[in-house]
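Kindly go through one protein, given below as sequence and tokens. The question is how this chain folds according to its tokens.

***
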Amino acid sequence: MKEGYILKVSQDLLTLMEITTGKRPLVFAITTQDITPYGNDLYHLNSILQPCVATRAPVVGVAITAESVVPGCATGASHIIDIEEAVRFTIEVAKQFGAGKCPFYDAREFQRIVGLYGSMNHLQTLRGKK
């Protein structure tokens, strides 16, 4: 996510997930309202992307998921292996990003979409106004 846009998933991030876990990465769908602030009476899948309402920086959500519906407050649902994989992935991403080898988004494509359709950062505000 960046400034109100839901962008394509970074291939570099998917590759790092495969390398660190030895599994194919999973990506879940989100909707526009998922990247808007809470408090606007719209449905939100969860809070994983809420940081995107407070920054112009790109935001990537990393979720620890389950095969069944588990309440977010159910701490027993977080298995140490899942947490360890997420942490290892995050460390590898930080190393690669810091070395300039893992962009979170395609900057040229982002500029093109903004040029074609304008700013969407009004979605980052509670009332949709700047």
